[in-house]
Design brief:
The protein contains nine helices and no strands. By secondary structure, it is an all-alpha fold. The protein has one domain. Helix 1 packs across helix 4, helix 1 crosses helix 5 and helix 5 packs across helix 9. The two termini are about 20 Å apart.
Length: about 210
């Protein structure tokens, strides 16, 4: 990715991840757990959510070098003891993150249509380029985070709606989740089966 494209992409990534984490905090607060709000995570301020390695270093290196690196933001703390139905409500808190990215993707697509849609690359303005990146990136974040692998949101959503024994098995996978994700990435599984789904949805929105 060129430097000209990397700058708006990085800004959109930081904003999207901050919105994503704030959505987790908002959902947790609405469902009875004020922990994230008390700790200052119910905010769109990126400084409350970024992890300097996972949110800044890894994405920048990946964008500028083309390396396949998986980034992350600081997880929102949730005290399940404050939730009325801990497993179910924790799943809803997890689901709020990807849903927030879908909302951002739809909003960016609507704004893009309102200002004339995609034009030939030579005639694209910075606003057009930024909106296209926002659609593609937020769709990708939503689909990726919905993979049923802890610590991704999809793993937490799945654990909330399966029998307790299966949920405990999913929980035991949590320490190995990132190793599994990198195995799927490096083996080409994500490239062949997951990324085409997000690309198709983004293309449809655009």
């Amino acid at each position: 990715m060129s430097l000209e494209a990397a700058v708006p992409a990085f800004i959109i990534l930081i904003a999207s991840l901050s919105f994503h984490e704030a959505a987790h905090a908002w959902a947790a607060d609405r469902l009875g757990d004020p922990t994230a709000r008390i700790l200052g995570r119910l905010t769109l301020n990126p400084l409350a959510h970024i992890d300097w390695i996972g949110t800044v270093l890894f994405p920048l290196v990946g964008m500028l070098s083309g390396l396949s690196l998986i980034g992350w933001a600081k997880p929102v703390p949730v005290d399940m003891r404050n939730l009325k139905a801990p497993r179910r409500d924790f799943a809803l808190v997890a689901l709020a993150g990807p849903v927030s990215n879908v909302v951002l993707a739809l909003a960016a697509a609507v704004l893009l249509k309102a200002q004339g849609g995609i034009v030939p690359e030579s005639g694209q303005t910075l606003l057009t380029t930024t909106l296209v990146i926002a659609v593609v990136m937020n769709v990708s974040l939503a689909i990726f985070n919905l993979l049923p692998i802890p610590p991704l949101d999809g793993g937490n959503v799945l654990a909330g709606f399966v029998p307790e024994g299966a949920a405990r098995m999913i929980d035991r996978m949590r320490p190995y989740g990132f190793f599994l994700l990198y195995a799927l990435l490096l083996s080409g599984v994500l490239t062949r089966f997951v990324f085409p789904v997000s690309d198709s949805i983004a293309s449809w929105l655009l």
